[in-house]
Structures are given as C-alpha cells and as structure tokens.
Amino acid sequence: MSNNLKLILGFIYLLCLGVLLIFLFSNLDIKDLSDYSYIKKNSEELLNLKKNNLILFMFVFFIFSILWTFLLGFAGPVAILSGFVFGKWLGTIISVTAFAVGSTFLYVFANYYFRNVVIEYLEKKIDKYKNLFKKNELIYFMIFRFAGGGGLPFGIQNILPVVFDIKVKNYFNATILGLFPSVFIINSLGSGLEKLIEENDSLSYKSIIFNPDIYWPIFGFLFILVTSFFIRRKFFKKK
Description:
Elements: H1 3-26, H2 36-52, H3 54-70, H4 75-86, H5 88-113, H6 115-126, H7 130-135, H8 137-146, H9 154-159, H10 168-199, H11 205-209, H12 212-235
Helix pairs in contact: 2-3, 3-5, 4-5, 4-10, 5-10, 8-10, 8-12, 10-12
C-alpha cells in the first residue's frame, strides 16, 4: 500500500474524528453539567425521545457507538449512557455488541492499512506476549479484555492485536466475552443514575453514595479492578 494512500486514509480518519468531537462539544456546555435542573430536564427529554421511537433510537445509538469505537473513543461514557437510556440488561447487550463490532472494524482496518505502523511502534513493547497468545488466542485475548487491556486506553487495546495477527472471529468473540462483565457493571451504574434522577427533584452526595443502585455497581467495578490486577500479575507480568 502506497504512503500517499495511507496519508489520505489517515487524514480522512482524523477529519471524521475532528468533526465528531466538534459536534459533541458544540452542543454541550460544561457549565450546565453542574446544574441539576438542566440534567433532569434533558434526561426526561432523552427518555421520552427513546420511548416514542424505541427501535429508531436503538438503531441510531448502536450505529453511533460503533462509529465512536472505530474512531478510538472511550468505552466508559457510552456504556453509562447506554445503561441510563436502555437499562442495565438491554443497555449491556447493545453496548457490548456495538463495542465488539466497532472494535473489529477498527482491528481489520488497522491490520489491513496500518499493520506496519502498528507493529513498528508496539511490537517491541509486547513481543514477550506473542508466545502466550499463540497458545490460545481466544482465551488469552478474552482474559486481556477482562483485565482492562493491561491498563491501556480502549482504542489502543483494539489495535494492539494487530501485532499478534489474531483471527477476526476470535477477536470478535473474545471482545464480547471479555468486555461483558465490566460493561454490565458500568451499564448498571448508568441505570442506577437514571432511576436516581427520575425519583428525586434534588440530589445530595449522601443520597447518591448510599443508594444501592449506585454503590453496588461501584463495588462491582472495584471488584473487577482488583481481579484485573491479579490477572495482569499472573498472565501479563513484566519479565
């Protein structure tokens, strides 16, 4: 593949990412995020929009999540929003599937067009793990996903397997299985926030912290973090 074509594709990719970020920040005033009445009002409008156009809303959210993931977006905000709008179970199914599809598209894209670049910058850092993944790429990549990708940003996690040349089928399945526990917990937190906002005209730190719909997901997330730490120590420790 010619360098000119790589530059063109890279420019198009960055342009799409820039347009998405400009759209998001031009429609969001950071100051409003501290105004509870603003949050409650917009939450109600968002939920009414979903209620009146459920299928269309699900489709748009699904496509947006795929695009967001493909453009190296963070998974956390989308998972919280998914739980907030669709509830913890449906939200988890939608967001995990979208993450898996978007990640797989990104992996295939990076593997086909930017394989040499990814290998050049990342291979030396993770070369010691190649034999580990060759043993069973499905299992070890699933463990890698469950363990938070070794603490790497979500976008980097998605292109890292280019170095290991993982099969697309194994990549997709491992992403679904590995992400499900943590995404479910984050969706549960989003669902708890929606319930909290719906039932209260005002909030205090105490009402948030001592609400079981909030603290149980937080405990679950902490459990995932601790478990991930020991998994990384066992399977991905530095040598």
